[in-house]
Structure formats: C-alpha cells, structure tokens
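Tokens for Flagellar basal-body rod protein FlgC. Go.
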Amino acid sequence: MSLFRILDIAGSAMSAQSVRLNATASNLANAESVSSSAETTYRARRPVFAAALDDAMQGGESASPGVQVKGIVESQAPLVREYNPNHPMADTDGFIYRSNVNQVEEMADMMSASRSYQTNVQVADTAKQMLLQTLRLGKG
C-alpha cells in the first residue's frame, strides 16, 4: 500500500469524524428543545459509518479503502413527555415533549470524535513525513 493511499484513508476518516462532530453539535444545540407533539420533537441523530475496504478490494488498485458515511439515523429512544399545562407549546392535554438527547452522552461522543480526528491528523502527518524522507533519500 502506498503512502498516498494512507493519506486517502486518513482523509476519509477525518471527514467521517467531522460529520460525527457536526451531528453531536446539532444534538447539543437542540437538547433543550420542546414541542407540542411527539412527531415534531427533535430526536438525537447519529451518523452510520462503514469501512470501504470491500469496495476497494472489488475495484482493484484504483479504489481506496477508508471510511464511508452511510447516512444519519435518528435515535429511537423515548422522548420525554412532561405535563406542563401553562407552557405555551403544551398540547390540548397539557403535555410538552422534550428531546431525547442525553447531554452527557453527547459530550462523551464529542470527545471521542475529537480524539479520533486528532489521531487521523497524526497519521496523515506521519505519512507526509515518511514521504518527505523518501524524497530526501533520492537526493543523497
């Protein structure tokens, strides 16, 4: 595997972690949102990743393995239904619906995504340094 392919893999992983960080930021921004119905209430979102190795193996040398973002899914965790008849968004029965975002879980996910992103930056930097060293060997 060439060092250029390593850069492609690290780049795809950084892109995937960027999607993960954006989803986490969106979840945290909407954590305290309320709605008058369960259908319109914000639900936590999570990206779905897949290794692109199988696609690369079938495509030969031109395809590059890496990380693919297959999509974003909404959490199926139950919403928080709260009786608050004085709230302006309360339904006819006096209930409001709060998001199912767990802020502690989101912060842990954000730290994990940030660490993964940093690790892939280091992988790309190491590959770059190795390429530069290889070029210097030819000058000698």
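The chain has one domain: 3-139.
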